[in-house]
Amino acid sequence: EDERRRATNIHQRRERHWLGSFSIPFQTIYANSRVDGTFEIGIPLVLLGYEQNRVALGSSLSSTISSSAMTPRHACVTLFITIQPPLCPPPPIKQRFDSCEEPKLLRAAQLWEATLKSKFPRRDYKATAVDINGKTVFITRYITKQAPPEQVWPDQRNRSQKAMEAVARFVSMIPFLSDAVAFSGSCDLWSTSEEFLQMLSGDEEEHAVLLCNYFLCMGQEAWVVLGTGIPEGSTAYVLVRDSDQQSPSFELWNPISGHHYAHLDAYCPLQSVELVFNTENIWANIQEYDEPSRMMFNLDEAKSWKPFFTSSFPRPQLPTLQRPVLQYHPTDLAYVQQLQERMERTLMNELMSWRQHDITRWNRFCSFALKELLPRFEENPNDVSISHQSSQQLAQLLSTYKIYGFPLNIALTDINSVVERLFSTGVHLNEDPHVEFALAVYLHAYPNDVISVWVYVASVVKR
Questions:
Q1: Any idea what the Cα angle at residue 343 is, between residues 198 and 431, rounded to 5°?
Q2: How far is CA 389 from CA 11, 70, 381, 456, in A?
Q3: Nearest to 434 by CA among 13, 93, 136
Q4: How far is Cα 162 from Cα 398, in angstroms, rounded to an integer?
Q5: Which helix (H) or strand (E) holds 136?
Q6: Cα 81 vs. chain centroid, distance in angstroms?
Q7: How far apart are CA 47 and CA 188, in angstroms?
Q8: Helix 364-379 vs helix 386-393: angle between axes, to the nearest 10 degrees?
Q9: Label partner for 403 (CA 20 to 30 A): which of 55, 144, 223, 276?
Q10: Per-state percent for the chain, helix, strand, coil, to nearest 5
Q11: Beta-ladder partners of 122
């Protein structure tokens, strides 16, 4: 029989592999009418099973499973999102609250905000905030030097960027909770750092104020930046000036993620800057552009920044609301160990329940190998060489198995949030009849019951 006439059967198996995530809350789209731009994708520190292909001006992901791990950096997605028909959000409700500030200062703040709003109606300027007691206070009162925990900053002479990253890491591991959820009503309430650490949750302003105060204690020039960002909408960052270079440069620190960007970085998630402030003054951005990469950050430039306090209206005595010395307590390590074991059992049981019609086999040897890697990830969360090191440590396994996997890292709120995060990756949607799974959990305890959760999950198929 002619070979060309024989029936040819082609068998294909499609696999879904999670490479990263990017989410935008509906509130951000609703408030801005549309979202348009190029944004960074959140990609895990290591992607086992993928390698990075070098091309002329960038890099791309190879979909061929290989024996190496990929170290991603600045993978981006270009999006245009809008709502049709367009929805017009109602104007914000202007609420009046009691205040202990001098009436003269409050009137000056209202005039300052109204003058700026008439020139830049799309920018949200503010000189005051509402504390959790319902009192209107000047935002400069929230800024003062506060020392980080000794566990996070053991050498107080160390003011390197690595030390700053460790401090930012601690702040980013404090759970995020919007004021709309934490407090009833639509008012934006600002907590002090002590209240923030006691409640163990807060939104962008609390994270930014605490990080700014830590940086000030470390001898840095720092300001809090209020503006808008993607994906969170209204946000707060920390601006740090590097005076060591011949020409001063500025970095923008995201207190929620712990990442930092040069102010000229066009891919910085901070999309607009409305004002910056420290304990001395508030400066409103009056430049034509509000994108950080197109702005000048010389606060003495009168054409670019409008200060609240001036020579004709000097700053009065405004003592800080903050406690100068924050109290820290150690986290119960026995409880953390019990929680780690319970979380691992829960995640394994949940993954098996998601595969009701398939047998779920566990590769214990691989799980043990992955668990040994997790403490190193916490020690070096920004080390780009960690991917190569993990591949070397897993060399024996990678020669025997095709492994696809990744570590997830989130701040601990509850176990259900970790389960939802794991489910969203779709790692359980593997129809290979010979697939095995590996899963490891590691909890790293910081002071004041702040806990960093690492989950390493992988699908394993024998070569």
A1: 135
A2: 36, 11, 13, 16
A3: 13
A4: 32
A5: strand 136-138
A6: 22
A7: 39
A8: 150
A9: 55
A10: 30, 25, 45
A11: none
In angstroms, the first-to-last Cα distance of the chain is 35
Beta bridge partners of 238: 224, 253
Identity of residue 255? P
Distance CA 242, CA 265 (A): 16
Q: What's the CA dihedral at 450, 455, 456, 458 to 10 degrees?
A: -170
- Mean of the pLDDT values across residues 77-100? 78
Q: Which residue has the higher pLDDT, 227 or 68?
A: 227
Please tell me the predicted confidence (pLDDT) of residue 289: 93
What pLDDT, on a 0 to 100 scale, did the predictor assign at position 385? 73
Q: Which of 260, 292, 256 is nearest to 276 (CA)?
A: 292
* Cα–Cα separations (whole angstroms), residue 329 to 214, 332, 453: 17, 9, 19
Confidence of residue 343 (pLDDT cuts 50, 70, 90): very high
For β-strands 436-445 and 361-362, DSSP reports them as parallel
Write the CA distances from 84 to 25, 36, 38, 40, 258, integer angstroms. 17, 15, 21, 25, 35
* Distance (Å, whole) CA 152 – CA 131: 28
For residue 273, give the 3-state DSSP assignment: strand
Mean pLDDT calculated for residue range 130-149: 94
Q: What CA–CA distance (Å, rounded) separates 192 from 194?
A: 5
CA distance 278 to 280: 5
Question: Distances from the Cα of 115 to the Cαs of 2, 34, 118, 137, 239, in angstroms?
Answer: 87, 27, 5, 20, 25
d(CA 50, CA 52): 7
The rounded distance, in Å, linking the Cα atoms of 456 and 409 is 9
Per DSSP, 187 falls in state -
Q: At what angle do helices 415-424 and 333-354 cross, to 10 degrees?
A: 40
Burial degree of 170 (CB within 10 A; 0-12, 13-18, 19+): buried
Which stretches within 146-271 are classed as H helix?
A: 161-172, 179-182, 193-199, 204-217
Residue whose entry in the numeric block shows the structure tokens 């359980």: 428
- Report the C-alpha gap between 256 and 237 in whole angstroms: 9
pTM score, whole prediction = 0.88
Conformational region of residue 5, where left means phi above 0, alpha means psi within -120 to 50, and beta covers everything else: alpha
69/408 Cα distance (integer angstroms): 15
For residues 173 and 446, the answer to whether their CB atoms sit within 8 Å is yes
The C-alpha atoms of residue 89 and residue 33 are separated, in whole angstroms, by 9
- What whole-number distance in Å separates Cα of residue 394 and Cα of residue 68? 9
